């Protein structure tokens, strides 16, 4: 059903860039394909062809499908059909659930992109005057229930990546010929070198196990950090990996050492789909927490005529608990009045953005509590002025807008 809908929709849409998709023929066949897509998303489960089992061109192209449905949803908004637009946005989320249920990291990436595009569109739908506060909260409630039941199985993706890379290192021809990232010369070189230099193959196998174990330990760390505040010096990215040796001893290996090992293991770099699953997990958590916060803020603004003074006011009003930024272990930075910045039109005029929530996103900034202690408590409301860069400089409003990640609340 998805493939049939995708085929019909692709014939009737022009895509220069993801955000500039144009429906070229919005006829009866287009609408039938949209309905077919919606029906497909309502199935309990589905199976997509897996990488390594089929040629790359036979994989489901969720990118074009997402672009077409988003274009239709935005057109429905423009026509004032807000309920139909909401149905299509939620259908996209159900597609994301189907993609994430697959064993392959390929579909995980499709799901990540799908959710990012859908989350970017949802605040504009919610903020429209034709959508009530009650309807926004209904959508938010449905989203939170869906989110709890549709989280990716990151451990399974790491295992899948491990097994696929292992087959590539073994020179499995059925996998090599379907690897879109390796040309014929690279495949031939891998086979020859595997025969001439078996010790490098064994080294690559050992490093593959270390890499996979590192990712698993980072996933566990993110879960831990999402439940409480933590120090920027102890983030998941730079924690050491605990490796169990053949004699049963456990060795702690620093992240810098692991990076060096990876850099000096060319076979593994050639074959490994070197995805940082832990980074994807953190970003996934960030975006879902952020869109829930955005929708709750928009609903509050519609009901009260203004935004709340602090994010904790949303508890019991759309949210059951304080949203936590997985990169800091703290609530999001909430900038109720927006930030000042240069207009960018050559006039040097200063403009103010719409309100936003902000995450430092990564390792570039670290948090300093107002008392200078660095201590973190979940009930604190951090501000962007509480963060420093790695040279201990205070941030400017331009820093916040240009670095980290901002999620805006439409006026």
Describe, in short, the structure shown.
The chain is built from 14 helices and 13 strands. It has 411 residues and is mainly alpha-helical. The strands form 6 sheets. It has a 3-stranded antiparallel beta sheet. A two-stranded antiparallel ribbon has the order 1-2.
Structure explained in plain terms:
- The chain is mostly helical and 411 residues long.
- Among the domains are: 155-275, no CATH class; 283-411, no CATH class.
- Helices cover 51% and strands 10% of the residues.
- It has 14 helices and 13 strands.
- The model is unreliable at 228-234 (pLDDT under 50).
Note the main attributes of this structure.
mainly alpha, two-stranded antiparallel sheet, 411 residues, globular, 13 strands, 10% strand, 14 helices
Largest sheet: 3 strands, antiparallel
**Uncertain segments of ≥5 residues (pLDDT<50)?**
228-234
What does the radius of gyration come to? 24 Å
Shape: globular
Class per helix and strand makeup: mainly alpha
Order of helices and strands: HEEHHHHHHHHHEEHHHEEEEEEEEHE
Number of strands: 13
Question: How big a fraction of the residues is strand?
Answer: 5-15%
How many DSSP helices?
14
Terminus-to-terminus distance: 39 Å
- Describe the strand arrangement of the main beta sheet, using strand numbers: 7-10-13
Share of helix, binned: 40-55%
Overall pLDDT, averaged? 80
